[in-house]
Amino acid sequence: MSAVRKIIHVDMDAFYASVEQRDDASLRGRPVVVAWRGNRSVVCAASYEARKFGVRSAMPAVRAERLCPDAVFVPPDFTRYRTVSRQVREIMRRHTDLVEPLSLDEAYLDVTVNKQGLPSATDVAKAIREAIREELQLTASAGVAPNKFLAKLASDMRKPDGLFVIRPADIDTVLPPLPAARIPGIGKVTDRRLEQIGVRSIAQLRELTLGQLVQQFGRYGQRLYELARGVDEEPVVPDRPLQSISAEDTFERDVSLAETEAAIRRLAEKTWAGTRKTQRVGRTVVLKLKTADFRILTRSHTPASPPSSAEELTSIALSLRERVTGEEKTLYRLVGVGLSNFREQEPADQQAAFVLE
């Protein structure tokens, strides 16, 4: 049996909004929405005061304004957020070189062995959170566990500004009562399929055999079987470069190509919102379609300069749909919009990326 790993997941609390509130005293205690105003803008972040009204990241800004009319809208300043993110990483790397950033505001750390010689992973997590609070005047939540899946689950347990530990002996107590939808990869469609076979909790998911899950969900069935039991062997990979960001959705019923426009617009907005959390910029736009008989069609385009707004990404994605020829009578069950071919942002890219209108 392999040695038990010690993994921490650190998640900054309402990161962009918290940086704005830290740097502008007049915003503290008020509902803050980090977004440009406008019909095509999406929410990059919302303070906890705004979240009480139902405002969430990736939501259209116009909807956020309807939900919280008193919200203060602040345009995003990604240059400043990246600077603070680097400061957070420096604090993490005092304890381990095995830091895997997921975005500007969260990361995994493998502290099976830590540089400071602290006696436990919990002590490391406490030290990191304390340094972030004292040096950066920000708060972070952390989860400590023997693997990445459980650590990320744990960091959500005490948000904001909390710490939760899942020890190996706790797995069979903590996991079973949770909704099955808390498992990564279970989206709306998979959740409905689970509901159809009577599975709402991880405890009920555990009652299914490996064979039953593989029969229902293919290769993902094995992953479900393992995660339901708290098994995750995926290592922490430091400085993994972002390769792609995408969003996809399965329709309630199969639709014609012409009927995919609304979904493409929505998914392009969602994908664009996802790019706001990375220091890299995607150059290639990808449109993915899955037919009713499970054939996958993809179209891609690499413009001379990277898409600089959600509107531009949407426009390219819709133009890619026009390249799907000879399929007029085909029905589709899924559509996806993605960005790939990422590279480091240049100053001109950063300035352009601020404009979402």
UniProtKB/TrEMBL annotation:
State the UniProt keywords alphabetically. Answer: Cytoplasm, DNA damage, DNA repair, DNA replication, DNA-binding, DNA-directed DNA polymerase, Magnesium, Metal-binding, Mutator protein, Nucleotidyltransferase, Transferase
Q: Which Gene3D superfamilies match?
A: 3.30.70.270, 3.40.1170.60, 5' to 3' exonuclease, C-terminal subdomain (1.10.150.20), DNA polymerase, Y-family, little finger domain (3.30.1490.100)
Spell out the reaction equation it catalyses.
DNA(n) + a 2'-deoxyribonucleoside 5'-triphosphate = DNA(n+1) + diphosphate
Q: Which domain of life is it from?
A: Bacteria
GO CC terms: cytosol
The enzyme's E.C. designation: 2.7.7.7
Q: Can you provide one Gene Ontology molecular function annotated for this UniProt record?
A: damaged DNA binding
Protein name as catalogued: DNA polymerase IV
For the ligand (Mg(2+)), the binding residues are: D11, D105
**Cofactor-binding details, from the entry:** Binds 2 magnesium ions per subunit.
**Gene encoding this polypeptide?**
dinB
